[in-house]
Design a protein that fits this description.
- This protein has about 325 residues and is α/β, with parallel strands linked by helices.
- It has three domains: about 160 residues, 3-Layer(aba) Sandwich (Rossmann fold), CATH 3.40.50.300; about 60 residues, no CATH class; about 70 residues, Alpha-Beta Plaits, CATH 3.30.70.
- The chain is about 35% helix and about 30% strand.
- It contains twelve helices and 14 strands.
- Strands 6-7-8-3-9-10 form a six-stranded mixed sheet, with helices on both faces. Strands 2-1-4-5 form a four-stranded antiparallel sheet. Strands 12-13-11-14 form a four-stranded antiparallel sheet, covered by helices on one side.
- Strand 9 and strand 10 form a beta hairpin.
- Helix 4 crosses helix 5, helix 4 runs parallel beside helix 6 and helix 6 runs parallel beside helix 7.
- The longest helix is centred in the middle third of the chain and has 16 residues.
- The chain starts with a helix and ends in a 6-residue tail after the last helix.
Length: about 325
């Protein structure tokens, strides 16, 4: 282990981090800097989320932490092990659920679990016992002998999580775990992840769904263009906007003039123009909405629509980058 890696290792061990990176970087041929100097710490037993749009660097980050992508620079430790120096040891300590379905379609549900258990050195009896335990835990016992191609999307995703946990990894990685799932399956998976968290499982997940990060994660790193823009608990990140209420106003007229006018209303901390509307960030002030509408009319604009919401993680992302998570 290099001196830099050893230093990171000492810090990570001292504060019981399962994941620690220092200046982690990935530059692809052609100069594309997918991840740019990432410094990250994930504590043991927490659900940590990487939140950002497609292309933010989330999947590349997971790729480096799970040894599938070779870093260009920096250091990454998983469970205290350098991913570049000893990738085999890292693979023994991690479970990975990728974006795509990687189940073996030639095998049954139970056989997918059995082969994974055997691959990680369990005896035949140990593998059978562990497979049966997981089938029950993930509500798949009745489908144990079915081919995986007959599973619904939600069942297949549960099986992939069960398989990733078969060898009791120190860290579970989930890359966009609910993409493509129907709302019921999505909620069922959230419930399972909540149970795993309650049992002390360390989980790192990527998502571009703000409600998923808000619901599941103790801490979130908002990423864009390979960098971390903000990091904290969902509530801390939302409080960073210094607003409890967001009034979004669509109007006919000059929106920049309207934004400036609304900014003068008492209680409004800031305004901006986004996606063809003006947003006013404010505290919880009695009578705020009628005052904003009146101020808009005095500014020479005609209000066509008004909505009032509370800050969300997507609001934080827009404030940091000027674009939606979907972009």
């Amino acid at each position: 282990m290099t001196g830099s890696a050893a230093a990171v290792d000492r810090r990570a061990t001292a504060i019981e981090h399962r994941i620690a990176t220092e200046g982690l970087t990935k530059v692809y041929p052609g100069g594309l800097r997918a991840v740019d100097g990432l410094d990250l710490r994930v504590r043991g037993g927490e659900i940590f989320g990487l939140l950002g749009p497609n292309g933010a660097g989330k999947t590349t980050t997971i790729g480096m932490l799970t040894t599938r992508v070779v870093p260009t620079g920096g250091v990454a430790l998983v469970d205290g092990i350098d991913v570049s120096a000893d990738p085999v040891a890292v693979k023994r300590r991690i479970g990975v659920v990728p974006q795509t379905n990687t189940l073996d379609r030639s095998l049954s549900v139970r056989e997918n679990l059995l082969f994974h258990c055997r691959y990680f050195g369990m005896s035949g009896s140990q593998a059978r016992a562990r497979a049966d335990e997981l089938l029950g835990r993930f509500r798949l016992a009745e489908r144990g002998d079915a081919k995986v191609e007959t599973l619904s999307g939600g069942m297949a995703q549960r099986l992939m999580v069960a398989r990733a946990l078969a060898h009791a990894p120190a860290v579970l990685f989930l890359d966009e775990p609910t993409t493509g799932l129907d709302p019921q399956s999505r909620l069922a998976l959230w419930e399972l992840l909540g149970e795993l968290h309650a049992e002390g499982q360390t989980i790192l997940l990527t998502t571009h769904a703000m409600d998923e990060a808000d619901r599941l994660c103790e801490r979130v790193a908002i990423m864009d263009a390979g960098r971390i823009l903000a990091l904290g608990s969902p509530s801390e990140l939302k409080r960073s906007l210094e607003a409890e209420t967001i009034v979004t106003m669509q109007a006919d007229g000059d929106l920049e003039v309207l934004a400036a006018a609304l900014g003068d209303v008492p209680g409004v901390t800031s305004t901006d123009v986004h996606d063809g509307a003006v947003r006013a960030f404010a505290g919880r002030v009695a009578g705020l909405l009628p005052r904003l509408v009146l101020r808009a009319e005095r500014a020479g604009t005609t209000v066509t629509d008004v909505s009032v919401t509370e800050p969300t993680l997507e609001t934080v992302f827009i404030a940091l980058t000027g674009k939606d998570l979907r972009e």
